[in-house]
Design a protein that fits this description.
The chain has about 140 residues and is an alpha+beta fold. Helices cover about 20% and strands about 25% of the residues.
Length: about 140
Amino acid sequence: MIEISQLKFDGQGLIPAVVTDFYSKKVLTVAYMNAESLQITLREGKTCFYSRSRSMLWRKGETSGNVQEVVSIKTDCDRDALWIEVIKAGPACHLGTDSCFNEEVFRSETGKDFSLGRLYELISARSELYEHTSK
């Protein structure tokens, strides 16, 4: 296990934290932590962040009740970002939505939404490819 002292906090003493839903794997939010908020998170088992706009610690859900129970915390290969998986109680976003990521900026044609029809087409195409290449 990595120690907090081994993480690379930026010049302001912060590290970005990508928070995802443990069950759906959906990205809920990106927030920032300092060493103190990370220690609180580890001790309490619920997310605590550092608000850059208010220059203070904030425990997710302390006023809304929408707490996030921490399942795991991982760091990236450079140790300068965190990935936190949580079980959430209520909306993750202060706007009352499930996730803070709702407004689409771009979507390619290959990134169309899932459907059983598309899954069938994919399986059929791969089956035909397999049959063609295995002869």
